């Protein structure tokens, strides 16, 4: 007891008396911290500082305020946005024949190009004073997704001018003269934009761009001006083959000191007409057979005035930060919209197909193996829709959540791949035989494009999500890093002392919270709701505490080496991502009015999210390089083991069966794959067959009952069986006509396209 009291007194003195604390704790820790800091490149520093911390900050800090999540509001469409979707978008869908676009034209038909330009499809994000629509991120996402339900090529063509590119950069950073000159042309379609960032030597590492702009003086339009001599070689540039204006990212250098500053100014963005002397547009690429325009551009000794820099000369060298902050459109809106469209289309068609396709005398949707894959499709679609809404909500709140959009890009495009794989497995031959009736083939073929662009998924997961999130979202680390860089050492030490005390308390709280939650099953954690979903909030808080705790110790022990431990940081990023996705799911359930028929999907999704988050935490502990520390962390985070086991078979069956019937729950997960008059594609066929078959379900039951009783033969062709059922009065004339029509629609739906022999 004496020793314990003595130890307690020593701790009180060490931490309670400032002079002693500064001498024996703060000063040596500060010295150690500065040595521990990872070296940051300029591009890493800019990426770290760019964007805003949003909901992910709550999740990273161990004690999320769930009321904050619910306060963000429900995404909605304005009357103008809804009218555009109901009219212009639906009209565009009737003009799309994706098989013809991809396999015959290898381009959109001229009338569709003209319609997109005339009706403002390329002006969704441009302010109204320049002729644009100024639509919300949610509306932009919804428009792209509905187009993608019928054609990936058409959707990509629309999404690129409304994504990372000249219009967005001009709207945010352009000079007034640049805006007035270019934005009306972009809004009307007179100017078609592309943005050239990727080259042979710079892909995901965009900071390694070798393309250069050298400051020099040269004659331009009859007089000598200060400008840039540009050389570039870019590839994979969407819309480049048809672009009239080129956004270009390059390294700007001033070797002769003409601007009076440093030589290496950094990444800069400029806007250049493609008919400008020296600008060359190369040949087309072939992105997995899709028909959207994609190709190369290059230039040699192309001179432009400094005024062509986006934002003017004062934005020289600020291009990387501009790009990182504006990546939200591509990473948070466009690519997630494509992914969500795949989910809606797969859910609509695969539930219908599973009902109308029969094997062994049964609808294939009755087989548990099919139900397992079908449940994953439905659950992933619910998750995709939830993440789409929450992410666009953040963007519409005018924050630039760079970590959130990285999460959305990586996980939503990967979920899209999973959805399409499962849909292909269930629909089998229907999915692999290309033709006008095939609604899965082109999304399946094009899915790797989404996974590759806007930062390759592998690097997004292993470098970006946790690498940015750990520093930006942590309540103390970024401030401590800034303190370490201060020139006034005494002021820095004073500030660090205050931060250190808070940091120690923060770490102790998360360690205690992790242990207490694990031992009590999170029962004492707060939840903003009652009912069945309240435990999910409590479990998410527990895992958030565990993430915060392990992150602190990882950064303390590994320091700069942590960013090179990519597999470890990827797992920690997975924990954050799963918590974000789970948050989106719970918010969607609330936004939908806590619909009871949504609960099977919510149960399945949340069981999956919690299982994956816990598994990622466990994987990080198992591979943590300092084993004694790993044992301590495991004892605090999983003292009695990991009991997050994922969905049960009962959950799986309930979810699959609930979606094998028309109803509001199915409508909420398929509305991005709309029906319209004159739709002659396979989606309409399989949906019509499904609805007709479902209407005849009681008639089928009568026939099955008669077969079991021996009144009707068990094996007989359908038409003959229906006629016999009518003849022996098992069904009446009206039932006979309805079931015959339903069977004709069924056969039409399961048939695939045929072509003449080559």
From TrEMBL:
Ranges where the Acyl-CoA dehydrogenase C-terminal bacterial-type domain occurs: 471-755
Named cofactor requirement(s): FAD
The Acyl-CoA oxidase/dehydrogenase middle domain, residue ranges: 194-294
UniProt pathway annotation: Lipid metabolism; fatty acid beta-oxidation
Domain of life, source organism: Bacteria
One Gene Ontology biological process: fatty acid beta-oxidation using acyl-CoA dehydrogenase
UniProt family annotation: Belongs to the acyl-CoA dehydrogenase family.
Name by which UniProt lists this protein: Acyl-coenzyme A dehydrogenase
Species of origin: Shewanella atlantica
């Amino acid at each position: 007891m004496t020793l314990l009291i003595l130890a307690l007194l020593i701790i009180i003195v060490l931490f309670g008396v400032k002079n002693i604390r500064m001498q024996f704790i703060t000063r040596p820790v500060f010295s150690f911290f500065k040595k521990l800091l990872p070296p940051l490149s300029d591009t890493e520093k800019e990426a770290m500082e760019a964007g805003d911390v949003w909901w992910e900050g709550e999740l990273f800090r161990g004690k999320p305020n769930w009321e904050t999540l619910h306060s963000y509001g429900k995404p909605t469409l304005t009357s103008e946005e809804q009218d555009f979707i109901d009219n212009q978008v639906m009209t565009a869908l009737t003009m799309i024949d994706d098989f013809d676009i991809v396999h015959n034209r290898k381009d959109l038909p001229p009338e569709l190009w003209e319609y997109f330009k005339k009706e403002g499809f390329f002006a969704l994000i441009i302010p109204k004073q320049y002729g644009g629509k100024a639509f919300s991120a949610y509306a932009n996402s919804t428009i792209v997704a509905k187009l993608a339900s019928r054609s990936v090529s058409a959707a990509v063509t629309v999404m690129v001018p409304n994504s990372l590119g000249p219009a967005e950069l001009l709207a945010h950073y352009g000079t007034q003269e640049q805006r007035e000159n270019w934005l009306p042309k972009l809004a009307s379609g007179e100017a078609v934009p592309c943005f050239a960032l990727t080259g042979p030597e710079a892909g995901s590492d965009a900071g390694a761009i070798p393309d250069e702009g050298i400051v020099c003086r040269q004659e331009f339009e009859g007089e000598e001006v200060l400008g840039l001599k540009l050389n570039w070689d870019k590839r994979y540039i969407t819309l480049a083959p048809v672009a009239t204006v080129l956004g270009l990212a390059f390294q700007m250098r001033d070797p002769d000191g003409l601007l009076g500053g440093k030589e290496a100014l950094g990444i800069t963005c400029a806007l250049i007409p493609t008919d400008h002397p020296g600008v060359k547009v190369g040949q087309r690429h072939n992105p997995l057979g899709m028909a959207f325009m994609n190709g190369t551009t290059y230039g040699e000794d192309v001179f432009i005035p400094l005024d062509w820099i986006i934002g003017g000369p004062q934005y020289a060298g600020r291009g990387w930060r501009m790009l990182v902050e504006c990546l939200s459109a591509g990473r948070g809106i466009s690519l997630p919209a494509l992914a969500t469209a795949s989910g809606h289309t797969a859910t609509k068609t695969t539930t219908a197909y599973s009902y109308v396709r029969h094997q062994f005398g049964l609808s294939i949707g009755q087989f548990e193996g099919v139900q397992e894959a079908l449940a994953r499709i439905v659950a992933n679609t619910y998750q995709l829709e939830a993440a789409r809404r929450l992410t666009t909500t953040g963007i519409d709140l005018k924050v630039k959540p760079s970590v959130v959009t990285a999460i959305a890009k990586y996980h939503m495009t990967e979920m899209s791949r999973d959805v399409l794989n499962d849909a292909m497995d269930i629909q089998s031959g229907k999915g692999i035989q290309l033709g006008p009736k095939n609604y899965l083939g082109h999304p399946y073929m094009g899915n790797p494009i989404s996974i590759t662009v806007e930062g390759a998924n592998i690097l997004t997961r292993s470098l970006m999500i946790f690498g940015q999130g750990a520093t930006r979202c942590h309540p103390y680390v970024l401030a401590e890093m800034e303190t370490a860089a201060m020139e006034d050492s005494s002021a820095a030490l004073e500030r660090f002392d205050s931060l250190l005390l808070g940091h120690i308390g923060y770490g102790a709280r998360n360690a205690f919270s992790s242990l207490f939650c694990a031992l009590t099953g999170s029962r004492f954690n707060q939840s903003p709701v009652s009912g069945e979903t309240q435990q999910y909030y409590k479990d998410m808080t527990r895992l958030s505490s565990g993430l915060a705790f392990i992150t602190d110790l990882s950064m303390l022990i590994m320091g700069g080496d942590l960013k090179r431990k990519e597999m470890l940081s990827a797992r920690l990023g997975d924990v954050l991502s799963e918590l974000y996705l789970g948050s989106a799911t719970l918010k969607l359930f609330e936004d939908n009015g806590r619909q009871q028929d949504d609960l099977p999907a919510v149960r399945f999704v949340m069981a999956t999210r919690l299982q994956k988050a816990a598994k990622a935490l466990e994987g990080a502990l198992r591979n943590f390089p300092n084993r004694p520390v790993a044992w301590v962390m495991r004892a605090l985070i999983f003292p009695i083991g990991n009991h997050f086991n994922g969905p049960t078979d009962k959950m799986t069956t309930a979810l699959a069966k609930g979606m094998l019937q028309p109803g509001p729950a199915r409508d909420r997960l398929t509305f991005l794959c709309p029906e319209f008059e004159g739709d002659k594609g396979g989606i309409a066929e399989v949906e019509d067959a499904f609805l007709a078959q479902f209407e005849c379900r009681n008639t089928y039951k009568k026939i099955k009952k008669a077969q079991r009783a021996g009144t009707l033969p068990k094996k007989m062709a359908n038409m003959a069986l229906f006629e016999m059922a009518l003849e022996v009065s098992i069904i009446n004339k009206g039932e006979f006509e309805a079931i015959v029509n339903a069977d004709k629609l069924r056969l039409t739906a399961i048939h695939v396209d045929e072509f003449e022999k080559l």
